[in-house]
Batch of 2 targets.
Target 1
Amino acid sequence: MTENRYLIFNPFLYMTLLSLGINHQTAPIDIREKIAFSPEQLSGALLELQKLPAINESVIVSTCNRTEIYCDASDDSRSTISDWLSSFHNMENNSLAPYLYQHANHEVARHLFRVASGLDSMVLGESQILGQLKSSYDQARAGNNVNAILDRLFQHSFSVAKRVRTDTEIGSHPVSVAFSAVNLSKQIFGDLSKQRALLIGAGETIELVARHLKSQGIQSIVIANRSLEKAQILAQTLGATATSISAVPDELVNADIVISSTASQLPILGKGATEAALKLRRHRPIFMVDLAVPRDIESQVGDLEDVYLYTVDDLKNVVDENMRHRELAATAAQEIINVEVTTFSQWLKTHQSADHIRQLRNQTEIIKQQCIDKAIAQFMLDNDAKKALLMLANSLTNKMLHAPTLAMRKAIKTDDQATIQFLKSLMASE
């Protein structure tokens, strides 16, 4: 049986809750791209990570804005994990050092609770990250990488995120122009299930608008674009109808909501075409949002009585105000997180203390058995019980005091009085 005397009375090699990673705040996109894990890589990466020495549990979180590793591992394994991360992505060791952040024990919980609640996201309060965390946790659990510590940590983070969403307004105020546009349309029409939308353009912003409208149960969407093929591709993914930009005046007759975002240098929709459409609609109102710069919709359209026209600047004011609301909510959310971190920290200390005692007893048992085996061998050799007993006592004493002696010498050398007094207290007789 291999002995490991250094573990005795050495708390620094016991298991510690660790996390390390990079995100949009610490690393540029070219670095984030290099160490992102694709869905196809993740299972193999978890398997490799779990094989590292002193890794007990592990979860990998990888999104466009962050790559993070959560582990229950020995405290001295941080550099090992960092080197593995670099090696897995064919990067030189220490190349990630300027971008990495690391946390241990209750600070891991604080960080993860902030991430799950959207407080550490590029867009404050966004909720998408929670689903990504759940997927990462599920995949790690499916690979048997998760045991008591990380299971408790991630489940607690999910409940914290839910509480933050319930008890604060962190997600109540939209902070993207796309969502703000849809939110305004809801304020005007209420239920969108009977409304028809005309979207002009086929870029990322229009796609986001379309997805938000679909989530609100919009009756139908028409996407108009200069490139009919591009409009058709986007429409197919959304269950919408595609048309050319020239058909906008005709489509306007049936449109209750018009949202435009193109790169056109000239207006696409003017006052005359809108007036004609309003007559055919018998002056049923049209809600319009122009997200383009330069503008796609002539400003005079806003003068028409039955048109509600908003520009990107109007929405920016809404977004800025909503961001202020989110920042206030983030303060309340942080207070919730502080309380929950204390709760988790108390559980972690209890769990780790039990583990430490168990490991200490197990290691002591190993040393005891080694000494007994040696003493029995000596007794079998010369049948001298006293000699065997002295060997047992000396061997057991030497082995049990080996690590504390090394620690005491080091503490005396560095004048570490706290450690000196602690080690002396271990040997004090009652």
Target 2
Amino acid sequence: MAIQDFFKTFLTKEDTSVLGIDIGSSSIKVVQVSKRKGQAVLETYGELALGPYAGIEIGRATKLGPDKIIEAIKDILKEANTSTPQCAVAIPMKSSMVSIIKIPTLNEKQLASMIPIEARKYIPVPISEVTLDWFVIPKMKEEVDSNLVSQEETKAEFFEVLVVAIHNNVLNDYGVIVSGSQLQASFFEIEMFSTIRSVLESGDKEPVMICDIGAGATKLYIAERGVVYDSHIISRGSQDITLNMSKAMSIDVSFAEKLKRNFGKNTTEQDAQIKEIADLVISPIFSDINTVMLNYQKKRNKNISKVVLIGGGAMLDGVQQKAEQQLGVKVVVGDPFSKLQAPAFLSDVLKRTGLSFSTAIGLAIRKLQEMD
């Protein structure tokens, strides 16, 4: 079973436009695209803060029930003036489990019975409570020739399998959300796969780390040749900067969020304070990222070739430079909108806002591929 067929259903070809919908902790992102002359074309996009739906400030992470999320989706679809119900929806990384396990070479029938048995060792809930999918990772010649594969494993012909599990109650909730929003979703996809699709380049052959600095958490994905080999969640994000600013500067959270977003354009004194406060949050995050990176490099005997920054927290001026200083590798800022054809006059705006739309764009791209 291929990972790209995860939760796939039949799709009619009546609609030429599709939606990618990313329900994050602090906002909902929506992208509508269509295919023209073989190219993915941006039609509209929008983002809506979820804080107000929970009675808290914009920029704060929330935990809303299906009813409130349905209300927010309807609002953003109207605000963005979308025109199709055909969509794909992201499942948050925190609601899923992804592991790489090693099993002996088996035929497809044997594999189907072996995976659930092996997965029990890695999944801390009963297998009956989750939906499983898996993907056999092809071995690369250099891995077979290197110390990554021991003589015992080579002789026994062990293979690495990417195993994905999603709680059934999460899938049920998302089904309710899609139905209540009058949408038609042909698949749900864990956000990391959508994100990687939108930010990795075809020429990326060496290991790449994607660093998604969100509001409530920072998510890390390490991919080699498009395959996810490692993932982590750091329970700190950009909202921690806002909350610390609010306390340190004795201002309300809403004003602190506004100052943070305008960093570099405020008064010299305000920006100096913001930088000092932001460093107290960003430095520990990059310290944790560095630990993850070094552990991966030791385990796989491969160096991370570059780090790609995305997420709302990556928009803060100076974050890229801070990352390069602490991580000691090439750091680039993602540009997922570059995968879509869009009006030239929007290029600068999209390059900046695209940091928050990586997952939604990745979903829309896969959705278009379904229609071929």
